[in-house]
Amino acid sequence: MSGISNIKRKALLYYNPVSGDGNFKNNLDFVISKYQAKKILITPIRAGKTDMLDFVLRNMDQREYIQIVAVGGDGTINICVNSMIKNNIDLPLAVFPSGTANDFAYYFDLPKDVQSMLEVAHGNCFTYADVGVMNNRHFVNVAALGTIVDVSQKTDPDVKNTLGIVSYYLKGITEVPNLRPTRVKLTSDAYTGEENMYFMLVMNGRSAGGFKRISPKSLINDGYLDIMLLREMPVIEFAPLLINVIQGNHTENKYVLHFKASNLKIESDSDISTDIDGEKGEKFPLTFSVLPKRLKILTKYNDMQGAIW
User: Fold this and answer.
1) Residue 131 counted as domain residue
2) Which of 118, 156, 233, 276 is deepest in the core (most CB within 10 A)?
3) What is the pTM for the complete model shown?
4) Within 10 A of 7 (CB to CB), how many other CB atoms are there?
């Protein structure tokens, strides 16, 4: 009885077998072996069209667990976090980025090779992260709305996996001629007004869709969301704005409305597509808020330090 009876700690691993290049499943046994070598019993849950994660979290005694590991892209992390909050789980979260863009993981400079991921997960460094709320759903990185939202939702998953982030750029270029401004009303603690917009981002992190400097001044644990709205503009202005975005100084562009807020309501008479961490979002009207420092993320650096292991 010296084997399993000596394992007094547990971990839960939620993984998406088709995220990115789908290669993580080939490393699953290796990851399990590394946890077991530390006398930690890790239970894998495969992401799919079931409520298995909800079922497990709803019935778990989190006092027996040391952490939750989420493996996949931003959409997978989103599902895991929503389930954690729904079931009042406050365990540390280790993120193994294996998706296409991995924007949430990018904020924390998390590694992409399995061995380095394990070193972070088995370390003692962590930081806290806010969680954004769109209506009744939570997001870790970004909520988006407008015509360009269809870029992610219309891009074939196989193309995403093959071309990676380039697929978003290629699809985005094809959508530019179809852009039409939409009238929206914004109400927040920082700005209230009406705008004709092409596209809008409500950011918790700093990057979106692989654009690494889309919100360069965002802080993931400041209790605020960074809102960026692309105003109606002549088509000829798109190219200069794209250069601004790549350089990370687009917030100074006159066609970009940018402000920080802890709450926001968006209304419109139009049917506007929405997206939340890369997945289909909510219907209008939209109400945004923040759960300050709701997540404890295992990281490479000592932003905050505690005895996790």
Assistant:
1) no
2) 276
3) 0.85
4) 14
Q: How many CB atoms lie within 10 A of CB 67?
A: 23
In this predicted model, what pLDDT tens digit does every residue of 153-162 receive, in sequence order?
555 555 444 4
Q: Both 83 and 172 in a single domain?
A: no
Residues 101 and 9 in one domain: yes
C-alpha span between 30 and 36 (Å, rounded): 10
Q: Give the residues of the chain that fall short of pLDDT 70.
A: 1-8, 148, 150-178, 210, 246-247, 302-309
DSSP of 9-39: EEEEEEE-TTSTTS-GGGGHHHHHHHHHHTT
Question: Mind listing the pLDDT tens digit for each residue in 20-45?
Answer: 777 888 999 999 999 999 999 999 99
The CATH number for 269's domain is: 2.60.200.40
Query: In whole angstroms, what is the distance from residue 286 CA to residue 135 CA?
Result: 6
Site of tokens 């991921």: 117
pLDDT at res. 49: 77
- Burial (CB < 10 A; 0-12, 13-18, 19+), residue 171, is buried
Closest CA to 97 of 125, 73, 65, 77: 73
Residues 149 and 246 in one domain: yes
